[in-house]
Every structure is written in C-alpha cells, then in structure tokens.
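Dear U.,

For the methods section draft, I wanted the exact inputs and outputs in one place so we can describe them consistently. I've listed the two proteins in the order they'll appear in the manuscript figures. Please don't edit the token lines directly; just add comments below if something needs changing.

First protein:
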Amino acid sequence: MTITRTAVVTGAAQGMGKGIIEALRKSGHTVHGVDREDADLSQPESAKAYFEKIGRVDILVNCAGGVVGQTHKPLEEITDDAWKQIFDANLQTTFLSTRAVVKGMKENGWGRIVNISSGAGRSVSLTGIQAYATAKAAQIGFTRQMAHELGQYGITVNCIAPGFVLSNPSTIKQWESYGPEGQEKLKMGIATRRLGKAEDIANGVSFFVQEESDWVTGQCLSIDGGHSLF
C-alpha cells in the first residue's frame, strides 16, 4: 500500500541523492532535495531554519556526506579542521537533520529515517581516510541508538552501507586512479563483478520507507554486490 508522504533527502546534488529522490517521487511522495547550496545542515541554526520552512517531514534520508575533497594522509598529518570537515559533512548533518524532524514524526505517530553510511563504516576506507571511516561507523551507531529510542513512536530508523558506487566526482577520480589492473582487481572482489549504481541504493531506501516495513528497524543493510563477503 502506498500513501503519499513528505520526504526530505539531503545530499541531493549528486548521484545517490538524485537516485533516491527519483525513486521516492516515482512512489508518489512529495520530495524535497537539499544540498549545501540550499542550506548548510552542519550548522544548527541553518538546519533548524530549513526544516521549519519545510514543515512536517514523514521521511528523512540522510545522504549528505563524502570525503569533502580529501585524500589519504598519515594520521600525524591530519589537521583538526580536516577531521572536523568530514565529521560535519557526514555525522553532524545526520544528527541535526534527524533532531529537526523527530518531534513532528512523534506527533504523527509515524516516521521513516534512513541514513546512508558506507562500507567503510563496517570495515575500512579504501581511500584510507581515517575520519571518513570513523564518521560512517558513527552513523551506524547513531542509527541503532535512534531505532531503540524512537521505535515506540512508530518511527523506524535504518541504515544503508553502500559499496563502490560511481556517484560523484570523488568516486570517479578514485576509480580512475586505480588504472585497468586496479579496477579489475576491485571488481574481482565484488561477487556480482560490477560497481554499484545510484539505483541500487535507491532500491534499498524504497524498501525501508514503505508502509509494510514497519517492523524493520535498527538495521544496516550492505548494498555492495557482495563485496562484504570477501
């Protein structure tokens, strides 16, 4: 059964966010996509103002994040600002956006929150970026804790850990840096022998937000073509 809901998808400017927005709209939902150019959701006042403007939100997909242009450096060379930038983009936005919508979800007795983490949060970052792997692992922990806290109000909170998806300039640059030999090696570590698409992640979101998924919460679903098997 499909009921029209109001959804917000953060990180809307790039591949996965766009794919999720398209899937939710195809399901008949009213979807607001937000990216940093629309509102800086890592800043409390900006996040508050944005969600107050939207009004009640039934579905929240926290897709904002990424490596914010960073590459691997040894830990002793990581600056405070570099560490904070990645945590702001990935974890702070998730916290502030979730905090902004839960009051309305509680009042309505229904809500769906899906956090887009990463395979790096369940294992290690292929790029070796320490803050990214740590922030994504923290998103998974936040998912579980919020599922425990909010389930009694009819709100489910779940998480997706994507594998390698060519969805933005950073992942494309990373893929190209491997060269033909490295690319083949990476694909051989994926059971389905292909990289992910934005649609693969959107399919997982569609499952978590549907009416019939109301007894599924606190889960972290790896959508990675079987990469986590290896």
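Second protein (the one for the lower panel):
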Amino acid sequence: MLRGCFVTGTDTGVGKTVLAAALAAGLRARGVRVAACKPVITGLEEPTPPGWPADHELLARATGRAAREVALFGYGPPVSPHLAAELAARPIDPGELERRIVAVAAGADLIVVEGTGGLLVPLSDGYDIRRLATSLGLPLLIAARPGLGTINHTLLTLESARAAGLRVAAVVLTPWPPSPDRMERSNRATIAALGGVAVEVLPRIACADPSLLEQAARTLPLRRWLSVWRVCRRGAPAGAPTSDRSRD
C-alpha cells in the first residue's frame, strides 16, 4: 500500500503544484524520505512565470530528485490530458501509469502525487483523475482559491470525491492573504461547516525556493497528517512523536 497523499484541485491553476511542493519540502525538512509525482503533465510548450519552473521541475526541486522521475507522461499543448495524448498519438495506459507511480514511491517513506486539473479531468476513455486517485488509495488534499466562487467549486469537489469513496484529509485555500477580508474568512468557515471538512490555508510564496516552500509548509498541520499517514522521521523508532514546528 502506498503512503502519502494525493493533491487535487477545484480547477486548473488553483495552486495544486505549489501546495504539493510546499508539502514535500516541509516533509523533507522533517526527515521524511519523500517522493513526488506528477503522473501526467500538459502545457510543456508554454512559458512559465518568472521565478517558477514547470510543475514537475518544481516538485523535483522540493524533493531533491530529478525532474524525469516526477513527470511520467508529458505533453506539449496546454489542453486536457486525454486530448494531449490523442494529439501526440501517445495514449495513457491506466495500468502502466499506476505501476510507474508505485515505482516512484519505492524507497520513500511517503509519496505526494499531484493530479492534473480537477477530479473529473479525463486521462483516457473511462479513466479520469478520480479513478486514478481511487486506485492509489491515497487521502486527498484539495487545493482551492480563497475568493469568490470557491464555495461552490470546493463543495462540488468534495461531493465528487466522497461519491467515489475517497478520503479527504483537508481543503487548503491558497494563496491565503496576510490580512484576509470578510469574504475570504467567511468562505473558509462556510466550506468547513457545509463540507464537514478541515480547511487549512497556505500563504503566497514569492518564488520556487525550497526554503520558502518549507517555511510556508509550517502553516500546515503536518504533524497531524503524518500521524494519520503513519510515517516516522528517519532515525526515529516506530510510534515516536514527530518533531514539527507547524501548528496542530
């Protein structure tokens, strides 16, 4: 069985990769041997924002691994994976994809898998991100925007996840401003109440520096998540408390 989490989002561009990279950097700083995987990436032909590499390169930087170990199927056009695979005549085989994810996790205490887009994004005929997450059996972290529209998008994502029997560890609103306004605070409280879920926040990160990613991860309840995921620090005996500078 895999140990770790699956990071999904309410949409594309909502901060999944930044959340996954911050999580990986935070875990690594705590002595956890962490692997990261972006099973399918599209848009490799698109330029990246200043200070930010492509998604798989950011995850590789956060874990200290090679980018080729992170991205398993890569495509140039910025389109849905099933269309990108069709255009490239390189279809995504679900069985092969899942086996390669398991191989990435080998030798690590924990793996952070980041999906593409949202849960219902298709990868091939009859196989989408939700099916992939279900097959891997990892708990979900849902990245969502803090602003207008996030309540509906996040609650729909929660319904979709739970309908498939997926476990949701938390929703993470990002980027969370230093001084959230009334709507943002209300959005957080409303999602928690209506969704019956823990809602955490991740601040804006200036650039893809692993130390900044790790610092941002201190705002997340890593100790609580690690206790659920049954992962200990290297050198710590099984069942030993995990040192954590983040809040509970």
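Candidate sentences for the figure legend, describing the second protein: Residues 232-248 have pLDDT under 50 and may be disordered. The first strand starts at residue 4 and ends at 9.

Thanks,
Y.
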